[in-house]
Structures are given as C-alpha cells and as structure tokens.
Design a protein that fits this description.
Layout: H1 3-20, H2 30-43, H3 52-83, H4 93-123
C-alpha cells in the first residue's frame, strides 16, 4: 500500500465517523441566556472619550515652557562658555531662585511619572490603566 491509499482510507474513515454522529443542539435555555447577555451589553453606555480638545492647550503650553527653558539654558551656558571653557557657569542670585523652583517641579514630575509607571507595571495587561 502506498502513502496516498493510506491517507484516503483515513479520510474515508473520518468522514464515516462524522456522518454517524448526532447533530449538536444547544440546551433549552442557551439561546435566551445569550440574547439576555447581548441585550445587557447593548444597554451599557459607551465609554467617555478623552477630552483632547481641552488637553491640547495644556500640551502646547507645556511644550512652550520646556522650549523656553531650553532656549534660556542654551543662552546661559553659551554666555558662560564664551569666557573660558574650563570655568563653571556663573548664575546670578536672581537666577538661582527660579532654577531651584524648576528643580522641585522636575522632581515632582519625575516622582509622578515613576509612580504611574509602577502602577502600570503592577496592573500588567489587565486593562485597568
């Protein structure tokens, strides 16, 4: 017997077994239970969309603030480096106060980002976040 005949016998045997099996029918309450669940899902309101139109001005403002901070940083470092490359930049006392506040803001943002990332890691792919 060659391989083709053997496979044909297996297929005919499988077809014979499938032909003799009874037809499957759902239980008596299955259809009504499924339809009840479908109707419950239809009644659930859709999720509230994120208010992107309200968030965009905040994103633009944040980008502007960080952009301005970058320009000022380059300006201060550039002015300090004109004199001598080996000296540290000298910041006036009027500049130290805003720099200290910016440091605290950066620390708060870093702590918020870290806690958010930790929460996402802990929840995994559960869909909660």
């Amino acid at each position: 017997m060659n391989r083709g005949d053997n496979e044909a016998m297996k297929l005919s045997r499988i077809e014979e077994i499938l032909a003799t099996e009874e037809k499957l029918a759902p239980s008596s309450g299955f259809l009504s239970g499924v339809m009840d669940r479908v109707q419950e899902e239809v009644r659930i309101p859709p999720p509230i969309p994120f208010p992107w139109k309200r968030a965009v001005p905040g994103f633009v403002l944040a980008a502007g603030v960080f952009g301005w901070g970058g320009v000022e940083l380059v300006r201060v470092v550039g002015a300090a480096m004109k004199g001598n490359l080996l000296t540290t930049p000298h910041l006036s006392p009027g500049m130290l106060q805003p720099m200290e506040q910016a440091g605290w803001v950066a620390l708060a943002l870093g702590a918020s980002l870290t806690s958010w990332l930790l929460a996402r890691r802990l929840t995994g792919r559960s869909g909660l976040l």
